[in-house]
């Protein structure tokens, strides 16, 4: 209940309400972009300062390994289920979105955990970066395999010797994995987060004192402003989410709970602290609606963007923000 009364979350609900009422309230795009970059920069600095104080340890290594494990497991499970209900290109794209992570959900969860005295380690910001790309790479490998299979089953036109590709999407060339890796690791948001984390780590306590007014005091207000814009964006994509099949809607609601449960089990097995475990659950349950859709639009053009974007933003994101974060926090506290 306390999470629902958090001012930042209430501004998100205000944005959803304003969008549903078709209000002319809007945040100019340049300001929304600035707010996104600010949150990533502040988050990176916070993580770097915390990591500077704690140092690298076995706990850090275990947490990063657990994050990498979940990043590989979630898209494989998602594709195995979804390919029975939608086209395989769409299944790969949706699995990539749900196998990757939402930075906004992560930032909101960090703020919520800190306010409850359950501050996670600074290395969890690096865990978020680790979990960004494996799902995209998996989806691109699947898409390339599907295209090659379509090319192999193409029939030869009589008397011409020319191959005619059979199947939707067969005319698209395979996407080089190197290109996807380059796009993933040189993405501006990723570089800013990692760079700010490195700056926080090397500047230590002195840097923390200097940057406190910027990265600490302003953070909550900036997050509230950004979530207001996210609420408006979610309201605009309710329509595309509602048009999805009941199976996909059920997946958007239930899959995050399954992924979070698997993350909690893994966290318990490796002995992660409750704060780190809660964030691993949040990351595993979240879905990307910014970085991954931008990559998939070019890497898997055969997939329908309204499916993977509409489900992640219109259904999973608001559910995680309003219900998921407090649920995952409670579960981590109870089990660990």
From TrEMBL:
<feature type="transmembrane region" description="Helical">
    <location>
        <begin position="89"/>
        <end position="110"/>
    </location>
</feature>
<keyword id="KW-0472">Membrane</keyword>
<feature type="transmembrane region" description="Helical">
    <location>
        <begin position="62"/>
        <end position="82"/>
    </location>
</feature>
<feature type="transmembrane region" description="Helical">
    <location>
        <begin position="37"/>
        <end position="56"/>
    </location>
</feature>
<feature type="transmembrane region" description="Helical">
    <location>
        <begin position="214"/>
        <end position="235"/>
    </location>
</feature>
<feature type="transmembrane region" description="Helical">
    <location>
        <begin position="184"/>
        <end position="202"/>
    </location>
</feature>
<feature type="transmembrane region" description="Helical">
    <location>
        <begin position="277"/>
        <end position="296"/>
    </location>
</feature>
<feature type="transmembrane region" description="Helical">
    <location>
        <begin position="122"/>
        <end position="143"/>
    </location>
</feature>
<protein>
    <submittedName>
        <fullName>Sodium-dependent bicarbonate transport family permease</fullName>
    </submittedName>
</protein>
<keyword id="KW-0812">Transmembrane</keyword>
<dbReference type="InterPro" id="IPR010293">
    <property type="entry name" value="Sbt_1"/>
</dbReference>
<feature type="transmembrane region" description="Helical">
    <location>
        <begin position="6"/>
        <end position="25"/>
    </location>
</feature>
<feature type="transmembrane region" description="Helical">
    <location>
        <begin position="308"/>
        <end position="331"/>
    </location>
</feature>
<dbReference type="Pfam" id="PF05982">
    <property type="entry name" value="Sbt_1"/>
</dbReference>
<keyword id="KW-1133">Transmembrane helix</keyword>
<feature type="transmembrane region" description="Helical">
    <location>
        <begin position="247"/>
        <end position="271"/>
    </location>
</feature>
